Amino acid sequence: SRKPIIAIDGPAGAGKSTVTKRVAHKLGLLFLDTGAMYRSITLAVLREGLDLRNQEQVTAIANASKIQLFNNPVAEQPMRVLLNGEDITTAIRSPEVTANVSAIAAQPAVRAILVKQQQAIGANGGVVMEGRDIGTHVFPDAEVKIFLTASAKERANRRYADLIAQGQIPPDLTTLEHEISERDRQDSTRTHAPLTQAANATLVNTDGLSIDEVVATIINLYEEKV
Ligand code: C5P
């Protein structure tokens, strides 16, 4: 029997990555940022110069892409990501990848390929997995399910600070808020595994909460249920 799984889903910029890493670190679990996998395929497709809507070619790229993810022991850093052996940790955070990832993630064949890998990684449990569909599709039997959200304005502010921290030049806040809302709209309205709160997920609105408060909330839920 597998160890427990914590599923953390929610819209862009709600703080999932930071919270996921800290919860995993505190509980001694692995973490997996599934968005990094969709970003990796998007990068591969963009590099080939393919039409993103050509599902046959996109699927071929997804099948040919070996994605390796490493938990970074430095809790504040993103997962290290290799694509066919090349380190693409930084490249997958580019504005071009961010702007195009939802179109790739909407394709059922791409989702089937990546969900299978995510299920294999989590097969023994003991993992905190974050994304859009973890509690609804990838691990519908996860012991703890969180739907992490915040207002679009708050999420734009955080993304702005993140981009600066990553050494990128952020667009202005209004543009960022539009981009985030547009990505959420695409992710929530797609046909396959759209972004939605699982019926048995706990909603955590992080507006005005510190990271530590959010982490403590999730750890309490975990200790109640496990
Ligand atoms: O989490 P992040 O913002 O990096 O995710 C990038 C994109 O990957 C999302 O906007 C969404 O289109 C897609 N995604 C998904 N399912 C997941 C994780 C991410 O469709 N489980």
From TrEMBL:
Where found in the cell? Cytoplasm
This protein's source sits in the domain of life called Bacteria
**Limits of the Cytidylate kinase domain:** 6-223
Q: Where is this region: Cytidylate kinase?
A: 1-226
What's this chain's function? Catalyzes the condensation of pantoate with beta-alanine in an ATP-dependent reaction via a pantoyl-adenylate intermediate.
> Belongs to which family?
Belongs to the cytidylate kinase family. Type 1 subfamily.
User: What is this protein's record name?
Assistant: Bifunctional pantoate ligase/cytidylate kinase
